[in-house]
Amino acid sequence: MAATSTRSVDDSEPDRSAEHSEPERDTVVRGTVVPMLVGLLIGAIFVAVFLAAFHDPKPHDLPVAVVAPPPAVAAIEAQSAAAGDAFDVRVYPSADTARQAVESHDVFGAFVAAGAPTAELLVAGANGPAVTEVLSRAFGAAAAATGTPLTVTDVVPLASGDSRGLSVFYAAFGVVLAAFLFGLTSMQAGPRLPVVWRAVSAVAFSILVSLVVAWLVQPVFGALPASFLMTATLVGLLAFAVGASTVALLKLFGPPGIFVAAVVLLVFGNATSTGILPAQFLPGWLEPLTNILPVGVTVRALRGTAYFDNDGLPTAIAVLEAWIIGAVLVYGIAVFVQSRRRGA
Q1: Whole-angstrom distance, CA of residue 157 vs CA of residue 149
Q2: 91 shares its domain with 178
Q3: Each residue of 134-146: pLDDT tens digit?
Q4: Which string of b and e fits 111-129 if b means at least 16 CB within 10 Å?
Q5: DSSP string spanning 210-222?
């Protein structure tokens, strides 16, 4: 009787091995294949975009001022055309007006050869050594063609704490990375966090990042000669824009939102930030992004407030505010739609 009872119980038990085989297989795929493919794809996009932008950078339509007789201007324009329209040559009436154009960032350099025994190239070292090198090489050749010696004068030198002009790029890259990780962690650690507390968290994070980064780039390293308040304001807006956009993309798309945010904000954002080279050195298909993505407008504004009479500041504030407002709207719409689906 006991044996019969045991057999009946065994016979009545379902075979649970089949129930677990499929979920375990799905778990293995999600835990191994999906991360591998996502990492591979983001890495490949990162390498491809950065190589496309910087493997052989050449200027195109880089604004330069020229104060010279008409034959010399014509020769410079012909030289620029032969180099693929490397420069946007703008004729100025005097050395003083050309210098003012360099100092206000209307142009990247000024070639002055108006009857003097020597020619002078006015550059802004704040644009970075690469720009100075390109201009010195091009206009050195122009001066040599006329047998005129060329002197190079840096009218907007870099801060002593930023000898290569890359501090703005690294600071912005760090802020974007931190904000992306904040948005990602915020959604993973508190997926059902009330909207009010998520907003409080984002504001607090942005304020803290702005204060820390402004403190590092100025009092600690002396890498950016801009006001502490303006630096902190721009950094805070950048952190909020990127963090809020990451949260909105994750809310809208779910896990695939990580890929979208990483590619748009990290890869394309930093490749087009102009922290390494001006926008005029980027391929034509990347250049427009410098005026659209948060990091590009922020880098220009930080450099402008430090060196170039607030060049780019109004645009940066408007674009960053647009990203913040857009992120808030997308997040709100996603929350509304998802709540309606759950209630249906």
Answers
A1: 22
A2: no
A3: 999 999 988 887 7
A4: bbbbeeeebbbbbbbbbbe
A5: HHHHHHIIIIIT-
Q: Supply the pTM of this predicted model.
A: 0.89
Beta bridge partners of 119: 150
Identify whether 7 is part of a domain. no
Q: How far apart are CA 78 and CA 65, in angstroms?
A: 15
The pLDDT averaged over each successive group of 10 residues in the chain (344 residues) is: 46 50 72 86 94 93 95 91 94 96 97 85 96 94 85 96 93 97 94 91 98 95 94 98 97 93 96 95 95 97 96 97 97 90 72
Number of folded domains that form the chain: 2
Please give the full DSSP string across 261-278, using - where no structure is assigned.
HIIIIIIIHHHTSSSSS-
> Are 142 and 291 part of one and the same domain?
no
Length of the chain measured in residues = 344
Non-local CB neighbours of 138 within 8 Å, separated by 6+ positions: 79, 80, 83, 86, 87
Can you tell me the distance from the alpha carbon of 12 to that of 3, in angstroms, rounded to the nearest whole number?
14
DSSP of 311-331, one letter per residue?
A: TTHHHHHHHHHHHHHHHHHHH
Residues 6+ apart with CB under 8 A from 130: 57, 276, 277, 281
Same domain? For 92 and 227 the reply is: no
Owning domain of residue 203: 167-343
CA 99/CA 124 separation, integer angstroms: 10
